[in-house]
Amino acid sequence: MRPSILYPLFAPIDTLTGIGKRYCTLMSNLCGGKVLDLLWHFPSGFVDRRCNVPLCRAADGKIWTGKVRVVEHAVPKTKKQPYRIAVEDNTDQMTLVFFKVFGDSIVKQFPVGAERIISGKIEIFNGLLQMSHPDYVVDPAKPELMPLIETVYPLTAGVTNKMLNRQIMQALERVPDLPEWLDERYVAQQNWPRFKEAVWTVHHPQTLADIEPNAPARRRLAYDELLANQLSLAIVRGRLKKQKGRSLAGNGALKEKLRAVLPFALTAAQERVIAEIESDLFSDYRM
């Protein structure tokens, strides 16, 4: 009964790339085992990465995002020492600190002289700027990979926010362009986006207004859910009413005996109820 256009959304989550057997189990326990379940795993918070001031104005303890040049690498002499990389913009210099480095991956990620867009928490240590393990490192040729307003999701042990974001992005790409099922005039009156746009906006907000509880995208999806639940209940009720039963059609003799001993006349409302009960009894379907 399900339209084929929805098959990709009801596929198991292990059909997404980057989900192994262990991760699939963790994800299924967190939000469900189908691709569609990822779409309904809504964010619980947000990280604002739009602070793009020059390094000389970066504030201690705040998230900073900006483009820097790699100056040099300070390779530690012992394993207990952190790996440090000096970077700079046109106004100041900063040290990137890494406590875990695997092979030569850090050199490939930060070649000397290259530019990178980074984002993370600024700290001031001994009067100098530093950032420990940047949250994001992006090639300037692909700035769209840097989420300026990053969604934060409810998680479980073994699942990171960055991993979950990648899987939800894949799920979003499977959402088809569905025909509008709500009343077009009502949608326009409420200034609601279409379903696909609403889902994308909730998971990838572009402005702080998009993350408000009463934002148009969230209101649209909430209305969709409520209406779908009511329609489902109506369908269930309709099917229950159409289940085969046994017709009980009497000749009215017992009813007339009862009427004869009543010391009062029945009201119009009571007569109507009796007629409704008789109609249900005479029907071939369950009452």
Could you describe the 3D structure shown?
The model has no long low-confidence stretch (mean pLDDT about 90). With about 290 residues, this protein is of the alpha+beta class. The two termini are about 30 Å apart. Strand 2 (about 65-75) and strand 3 form a beta hairpin. It has helices at about 20-30, 35-40, 105-110, 160-175, 185-190, 195-205, 215-240, 255-260, 270-280, and strands at about 45-50, 65-75, 85-90, 95-100, 115-120, 125, 130, 135-140, 150. A seven-stranded mixed β-sheet has the order 6-7-4-3-2-5-8, with no helix packed on it. The protein has a two-stranded antiparallel ribbon with strand order 1-9. Helix 6 packs across helix 7. The radius of gyration is 31 Å and the shape is elongated. It has three domains: about 5-45 and about 150-175; about 50-145, Beta Barrel (OB fold (Dihydrolipoamide Acetyltransferase, E2P)), CATH 2.40.50.140; about 185-240.
- What is the quaternary state of this protein? single chain
CATH class term of the largest domain? Mainly Beta
> Can you say what the CATH homologous superfamily of the largest domain is?
Nucleic acid-binding proteins
What's the helix count?
9
Strand order of the largest sheet: 6-7-4-3-2-5-8
The major sheet is characterized as: 7 strands, mixed
Annotated CATH architecture of the largest domain: Beta Barrel
What's the Cα radius of gyration? Answer: 31 Å
Compressed to H and E, one letter per element, the order equals HHEEEEHEEEEEHHHHHH
In total, how many domains does the architecture comprise? 3
